[in-house]
Specification:
- By secondary structure, the protein is α+β, with helices and mostly antiparallel strands.
- Helices cover about 40% and strands about 15% of the residues.
- α2 packs across α5 and α3 crosses α4.
- The structure holds zinc ion.
- Zinc ion binds next to α1.
Length: about 160
């Protein structure tokens, strides 16, 4: 844990977060429903351990984290049938391992480009921000669908 880290702080107060924000608590990571629900099912999967690079995790931690990321991607793809999943592990703004799982839409005018170009526009353009945050379903429903898939497919 790193007291100055945004995700370490967030992981410490999971119980205080809105019910639709915490999608799933895995052994090695926690899945949060992201703000950009134009990409229905978009999640951020945060490692429970503070590390900035995958190679800083033990082999076991890394395998678990990658398996959880894979399972969450499968859930998003199964629930929302994107044309393609995008997996992004960047950490330029918050240096704590977190995957962005963006299901890309077929009707997205920017579907051939990384989402960050549109999200960058949204920082300067309120209408674009609203468009990219708007969900076709209530957030609680999106989270519930993902949880139902995970409940059914988690290894026991
Ligand atoms: Zn951290």
């Amino acid at each position: 844990m790193d007291d100055s880290c945004f995700f370490c702080q967030k992981l410490r107060r999971l119980a205080e977060l809105p019910a639709d924000e915490v999608v799933w608590e895995f052994p090695s990571s926690v899945a949060f429903l992201g703000p950009w629900q134009y990409f229905a099912g978009y999640c951020i999967l945060v490692s429970r351990r503070h590390a900035t690079e995958l190679f800083q995790l033990s082999v076991q931690e890394r395998r678990e984290y990658l398996e959880e990321m894979n399972l969450l991607a499968h859930a998003i793809a199964d629930c929302f049938t994107p044309r393609k999943m995008n997996y992004e592990l960047l950490g330029n703004q918050v240096g704590h391992l977190h995957w962005h799982l963006f299901p890309r839409r077929d009707d997205d005018p920017d579907k051939l480009k990384p989402v960050w170009l549109a999200l960058n526009r949204a920082e300067r353009d309120a209408a674009e921000k609203t468009r990219l945050q708007a969900a076709s379903l209530p957030r609680a429903e999106i989270a519930a669908r993902l949880r139902a898939f995970l409940q059914k497919h988690l290894p026991r």
